[in-house]
Design a protein that fits this description.
GO molecular function, one term: NADH dehydrogenase (quinone) (non-electrogenic) activity
Family: Belongs to the complex I 75 kDa subunit family.
Shape: globular
Helix content: 25-40%
Largest sheet: 6 strands, mixed
Structural class: alpha/beta
Pfam family, one: Molybdopterin
Cofactor: [4Fe-4S] cluster; [2Fe-2S] cluster
Number of helices: 26
Number of strands: 37
Distance between the termini: 64 Å
Keywords: 2Fe-2S, 4Fe-4S, Iron, Iron-sulfur, Metal-binding, NAD, Oxidoreductase, Quinone, Translocase
């Protein structure tokens, strides 16, 4: 499709192939066949008012505000036509309200009808000041109305979910919300009810608006009928300070806008970025921002005193104590660095450089989650150094004939990837295959074929997915998306590599956290230096030594689990930890033990946590709203953002580490994010080019009497640390269940809807039973949802054996 119509077309010039020639308001233009008339007008700069039309939704013609006068074959149509549903045609002559009194009168009449029942809520309406109805009523409406009857009223607001409120009397029945929910999100909980004059938007009494993308309906509602429970009546648009930003909740790197007032974030809206999130946000990205002002926010450095208490201190004292303790530890057993996966690429680079230049070690690992050596080999071979120009992108997913997803459920872990998969399925017939233990809600909505796999044995399924899957992936443009959960299944990364080599499909790595890809590029790993340079490459080390003016250790470091084990047994004398939640580690109990037993612990954190409770020195760092930086999303695309709130007195990780390094007689030159980014850019990046992993495929555990193999994964809205103080968001979380298939339920005496207990020697989790299409002998639990914190409670993970039985039944013990 062309980007702009041919404005200089004349009757004599030839019509380009695939185009038609028409006249709009006296301008002869060429437009692609099938293009909607309203789009052609838009690209000519001709404004046609509308409410129901949206470029990413299917045409509806519901509001009729976009009426124009149309002539075909020299004969005018008997009445004005909706330009949002009519395609351009050869020889068409169109007159908008700018050149046609008839079209202008029709639009004024429609506006008069739309305002019959609309209340005069403008002084209190959240949409006031940014409302299309206000603007178009002024531009295209009459100054008075012939309708004087009593307006229709409803009780208001109607809570259609815990975070979306509906004022039915404001609604103009444009159907944007219902079309978005059905077409884009695949969640048709909201719909038109009744008929005629009684028609209204609503939900079924027993089905609240449970969608991970419900906030988009608030943003695209053109009249303020849908409002946010968290934002309602809190501000007027013209009182807000808006700042462009990037979402910090997953690796998609969505464009967004942060609206604040008096240095408090009040709301976030989706930005418009066609290459990434188009105009959408998931609800976590839209609503989970109150952690910046939570009660547990750390704003002052803290030092542990001789009596064991942790008290506030000055920056000077805290940095001096931290430097003294780390210097002593470096001279003894050494220092381990655990940055975590929530960092900007600038901060991750500062941690990577701090480990080598200050701590004199390669013991650095951002992977604050279950991980493996196989994963390191996979990342070096297929991911590091990739860019949107030579890697899988959102656009590639949308255009792919087939996509295989492995080790991830996109709807739960990367919502915008899910929306692209659904769009490709609806619009282009994408064939989606998903390797997993059961058919998820997201798989159903993307038409996916589930390749059922017993936890721990996914590699065998990927190695032999069936002739149909292989044939589909052999089509040009096919994609394999692999998530970081693949690290929990031995041999799975190797199987993915082999399948990609066999079929020619491109590989995309889809980590869950926003900072993982940037930390990979920044070298926050024990085997990779910044820019994808292998630690074992002498030339690469020499290159960095010249740039840094300091030696780089030649021996590959320990991974995260080994760092914690060494800290626990005294081999390592100190840890520098940045934003890591021990509950996310493969063994949370072992992680907390390591933090407790290590000789000296420094925590860079913005919120109190299990780490800060044990730390010797706590150095507060700035949240995204109070710092600038760049996330690198899963595509390898850089997603910069600026400061949204007053940043006085708060420091980003890179500045804290630079100052701490100076106290230890080493300058990192990362005083600002811009300085860190500039140095990393000058170093450049390259494909590591390592050999593809070739590890033995894992075998499924065999459950004994009363046992099952555990499958576990996270839900989008759960007990994540960045979702605190968000009761409205938490109200839309999917209910956690113990999921089994019917045969397993019968064998274990479980009854659907009744409670079951999943137990190990360490603890137990009790939840209601839900039946689904899991393999026999497999039970699924959400990893980090209310009442279901799997690793801290049970001490096991994906693929391990657990005991399952009815709640209160001794057989489950």
């Amino acid at each position: 499709m062309t980007l702009t119509p041919e404005r200089n077309a004349t009757e004599e010039t030839p019509v380009p192939e695939g185009h038609v020639r028409l006249t709009i308001d006296g301008q002869v233009v060429d437009a692609p066949k099938g293009e909607l008339l309203i789009r052609t007008c838009e690209r000519l700069g001709i404004v046609v008012p509308r409410f129901c039309d949206h470029p990413l939704l299917d045409p509806a013609g519901a509001c009729r505000q976009c009426l124009v006068e149309v002539e075909m074959g020299g004969r005018p149509m008997p009445k004005p036509q909706a330009s949002c549903t009519m395609a351009v045609a050869d020889g068409m002559v169109v007159k908008t309200q700018h050149t046609s009194e008839r079209a202008d009168k029709a639009q004024q009449g429609v506006m008069e009808l739309l305002l019959i029942n609309h209340p005069l809520d403008c002084p209190i309406c959240d949409k006031g000041g940014e409302c299309p109805l206000q603007n178009q009523a002024m531009a295209h409406g009459r100054s008075d109305s012939r309708f004087v009857e009593t307006k229709r009223t409803f009780p208001k607001p109607l809570p259609i979910s815990s975070q979306v409120l509906l004022d039915r009397e404001r609604c103009v029945l444009c159907q944007r919300c219902t079309r978005f929910s059905e077409e884009i999100a695949g969640d048709p909980f909201i719909d038109l009810l009744e008929r005629g004059a009684k028609q209204q938007i609503g939900i079924a009494e027993d089905q609240p608006f449970q969608s991970y993308f419900s906030g988009n309906t608030i943003q695209i509602c053109p009249v303020g009928a849908l409002t946010s429970a968290a934002y309602r009546f809190r501000s007027r648009p013209f009182d807000l300070r808006s700042t462009a930003g990037t979402c910090e909740h997953c690796s998609s790197g969505c464009d967004l806008r942060t609206d604040s007032r008096r240095d408090v974030v009040l709301r976030r809206l989706a930005g418009n970025d066609p290459e990434v999130n188009e105009e959408w946000l998931c609800d976590k990205g839209r609503f989970a921002f109150r952690y910046t002002g939570s009660a547990g926010r750390i704003t002052r450095p803290m030092v542990r005193r001789a009596d064991g208490t942790l008290t506030e201190a000055s920056w000077t004292e805290a940095l001096a104590v931290a430097a003294e303790g780390l210097l002593a530890a470096r001279a003894a057993g050494g220092i381990g660095v655990l940055p975590g996966g929530r960092l900007t690429v600038e901060d991750a680079y500062a941690y990577a450089k701090f480990a080598r230049v200050v701590a004199h070690t390669n013991d650095v690992d951002f992977r604050a989650r279950p991980h493996s050596d196989e994963e390191l080999e996979f990342l070096a071979a297929h991911v590091v150094g990739g860019t949107p120009e030579d890697s899988v992108t959102f656009t590639a997913i949308e255009n792919a004939p087939a996509v295989l997803t492995v080790g991830t459920d996109p709807e739960e872990e990367s919502g915008i990837v899910f929306l692209r998969l659904r769009k490709a399925y609806r619009k282009k017939g994408l064939r989606h295959f998903q390797v997993g233990p059961f058919t998820t809600y997201g798989a159903e909505k993307t038409g996916a074929t589930t390749l059922h796999a017993v936890p721990g044995a996914e590699a065998a399924v990927v190695a032999d997915p069936g002739g149909d899957v292989v044939a589909a992936l052999e089509q040009p443009g096919s994609v394999i998306l692999v998530g970081d959960r693949a690290a929990e299944s031995p041999g799975l990364y190797s199987a993915v590599s082999a399948l990609a080599a066999r079929t020619g499909a491109a590989i995309g790595w889809l980590p869950r956290r926003a900072g993982d890809r940037g930390a990979l590029e920044a070298g926050a790993l024990p085997t990779l230096l910044p820019g994808g340079r292998p630690v074992t490459d002498a030339a690469a080390r020499a290159e960095l030594e010249q740039a840094w003016g300091a030696p780089v250790p030649a021996t590959p470091g320990r991974d995260g689990d080994a760092i914690l084990a060494a800290a626990a047994n005294g081999t390592l004398s100190a840890l520098v930890v940045g934003g890591v939640d021990p509950q996310d580690m493969a063994d949370p109990t072992a992680a907390i033990t390591a933090l407790r037993e290590v000789g000296f612990l420094v925590s860079l954190e913005m919120h109190t946590s299990a780490v800060t409770e044990l730390a010797d020195v706590v150095l507060p760092v700035a949240p995204d709203a109070q710092r600038s930086g760049t996330y690198v999303n899963w595509e390898g695309r850089h997603r910069p953002f600026g400061v949204a709130l007053d940043a006085t007195g708060v420091l980003p990780d890179c500045r804290v580490l630079d100052t701490l390094g100076v106290e230890m007689d080493a300058d990192l030159f990362t005083q600002t994010p811009a300085a860190a980014a500039g140095e990393l850019e000058r170093l450049g990046s390259r494909r590591a080019g390592g050999a593809a992993p070739d590890h033995t495929a894992g075998q499924a555990r065999r459950p004994g009497y009363g046992q099952a193999v555990l499958a576990t994964s996270r839900q989008m809205i759960d007990d994540g640390s960045l979702q605190i103080d968000e009761p409205a968001l938490a109200g839309t979380a999917r209910r956690p269940y113990v999921k089994v298939n019917a045969a397993t339920a019968e064998r274990l005496a479980l009854v659907e809807g009744e409670d079951a207990t999943v137990r190990t020697a360490r603890g137990a989790i009790t939840l209601p039973v839900a039946l689904t299409d899991l393999p026999d002998g497999v039970v699924w639990l959400p990893t980090c949802s209310p009442g279901s914190h799997v690793r801290p409670t049970l001490g096991v993970g994906h693929g391990d054996l657990v005991t399952v039985g009815p709640a209160g039944n001794g057989s489950a013990s």
